[in-house]
């Protein structure tokens, strides 16, 4: 497996770095230190305090489980019958920064909290119909660094890639990525701190 950005020297420098990944069937770009340390600390604390966290129920093979993370959806809903939760000023501020950087306007954001290493998200694609034919997903992370892994769904000869998403980083997934690549945030037995992830999306 390929692990990117483990260079602690560069990590700790706090400098903005933009990396476009050269992978087939996807447009994937990472902004390291997109949000500076102090501001990222403030966003983390505010989001942790003001988000009405809850664990969603999911049904797999007729069995109901709680998702191993806490989530809240803001903005235009995937289910048009559900009420819309308006973005908070903090989420609007981060949304604006992301939109300025990538030139895409988003309608919604899913806010996730991974409380510790027992929380994670399994392999999946974000290609629900209401996200349109080529979903663009803008992912901003705060708190604990967690590896974000991607693998090509069809070309099994391509090595899995691990990207470390640290405090204040911004990862943009675009192009055909959501059709051809799956992603996950694996659980870990390590003692780790919480992580908040925002995924900005466009609901049509
Ligand atoms: O936490 C992350 O980095 C990814 C979250 C994710 O894949 C999702 O919410 O669909
Ligand atoms: Fe996802």
UniProtKB/TrEMBL annotation:
<dbReference type="Pfam" id="PF13532">
    <property type="entry name" value="2OG-FeII_Oxy_2"/>
</dbReference>
<keyword id="KW-0223">Dioxygenase</keyword>
<dbReference type="InterPro" id="IPR005123">
    <property type="entry name" value="Oxoglu/Fe-dep_dioxygenase_dom"/>
</dbReference>
<dbReference type="InterPro" id="IPR037151">
    <property type="entry name" value="AlkB-like_sf"/>
</dbReference>
<dbReference type="InterPro" id="IPR032854">
    <property type="entry name" value="ALKBH3"/>
</dbReference>
<protein>
    <submittedName>
        <fullName>Alpha-ketoglutarate-dependent dioxygenase AlkB</fullName>
    </submittedName>
</protein>
<feature type="domain" description="Fe2OG dioxygenase">
    <location>
        <begin position="105"/>
        <end position="204"/>
    </location>
</feature>
<dbReference type="InterPro" id="IPR027450">
    <property type="entry name" value="AlkB-like"/>
</dbReference>
<dbReference type="GO" id="GO:0051213">
    <property type="term" value="F:dioxygenase activity"/>
</dbReference>
<keyword id="KW-0560">Oxidoreductase</keyword>
């Amino acid at each position: 497996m390929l692990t990117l950005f483990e260079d602690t020297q560069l990590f700790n420098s706090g400098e903005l770095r933009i990396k476009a990944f050269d992978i087939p069937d996807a447009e994937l770009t990472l902004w390291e230190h997109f949000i500076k340390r102090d501001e990222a600390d403030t966003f983390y604390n505010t989001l942790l305090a003001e988000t009405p966290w809850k664990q969603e129920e999911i049904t797999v093979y007729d069995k109901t489980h709680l998702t191993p993370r806490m989530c809240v959806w803001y903005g235009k809903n995937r289910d048009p019958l559900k009420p819309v939760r308006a973005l908070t000023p903090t989420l609007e501020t981060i949304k604006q920064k992301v939109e300025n950087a990538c030139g895409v306007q988003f309608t919604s954001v899913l806010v996730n909290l991974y409380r510790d290493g027992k929380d994670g998200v399994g392999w999946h694609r974000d290609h629900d119909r209401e996200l349109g034919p080529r979903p663009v997903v803008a992912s901003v992370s705060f708190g604990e660094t967690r590896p974000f892994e991607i693998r090509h769904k069809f070309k099994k000869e391509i090595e899995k890639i691990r990207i470390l998403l640290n405090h204040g980083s911004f990862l943009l997934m675009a192009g055909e990525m959501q059709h051809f690549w799956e992603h996950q945030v694996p659980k870990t037995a390590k003692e780790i701190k919480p992580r908040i992830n925002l995924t900005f999306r466009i609901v049509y």
